[in-house]
Amino acid sequence: MEKLFERDTLLSTVLPVLLLVGLTFSMVVIAYGMESFASGVHDMFHDFRHVIGMPCH
Amino acid sequence: MNRNESAGITERFVKCIAAGVVWGLVAMGINNLTGVFAFESTLTHNLVSFIFGGVIFSIVSGGILFFAGRLLPFKGYLPKALMVTTFLWLVLRGGGVLLSQMEPHRYHVLTPESIQGFGLAILLGLFIGLFWGQGRLSGRAGA
């Protein structure tokens, strides 16, 4: 019963938080076009970055 | 988190995806109208990048709203969402200014793009607030 509760807590609380942290990191990588973390992200989101007012070359 | 809240988080997640898709497309349209930035990529490429980017920004904003919504000094989804998206944009923009000072040849700050970006951040908050406000949602960040 306790294990079931722990698994439920893990799935319903920890997982969304981890997903949010991962997506926040992705957002920062996209916003600044950080090629060192994801190759090709600069070119892929170049126009998007300019349109939302993030500094670029 | 109870079963009711779990259902709420899934519903909000889907609504954030929908808001992000709409916002991405509207951002493309608004830039096309204002002409602040001349698109360099093809329409197909931009459709993918704006929709994907919009969804990521929307989910992060919605996630912050979900977990920190109760701490915000407003009632209702709309003002809370507006506060989150505006704050998030200002933080990212602040980081951009720092990067611009560190690497001036790489990062250039342009005022028209910044003004448009700030407006779009407000618009994203508006979309999230309106999408979340539709129907009955359960769980945290209650209005």
Cα-based radius of gyration of chain A, to the nearest Å: 17 Å
Structural class of chain B: mainly alpha
Strand content of chain B: under 5%
- Poorly predicted tracts of residues of chain A: none
Oligomeric assembly:
heterodimer
Shape of chain A: elongated
Task: Report the principal-axis shape of chain B.
Answer: globular
List low-confidence stretches of chain B.
none
Distance between the termini of chain B: 18 Å
- What is the CA-CA span between the terminal residues of chain A? 57 Å
By DSSP, the count of extended strands of chain A is 0
- Report the count of strand segments of chain B: 0
Describe this structure in words.
The complex is a heterodimer of chains A (57) and B (143). In chain A, 30% of the residues are buried. Chain A has 3 helices and no strands. Chain A is an all-alpha fold and 57 residues long. Chain B is mainly α and 143 residues long. In chain B, 75% of the residues lie in helices and 0% in strands. The radius of gyration of chain B is 16 Å and the shape is globular. The chains are: A mainly alpha (57), B mainly alpha (143). The A-B interface holds A 9, 12-13, 16-17, 19-20, 23-24, 26-28, 30-32, 44-48, 50-57 and B 1, 5-6, 9, 24, 27-28, 31, 36-37, 39-41, 45-46, 49-50, 53, 56-57, 59-60, 63-64, 66-67, 89, 92-93, 95-97, 99-100, 105-110, 113-118, 120-121.
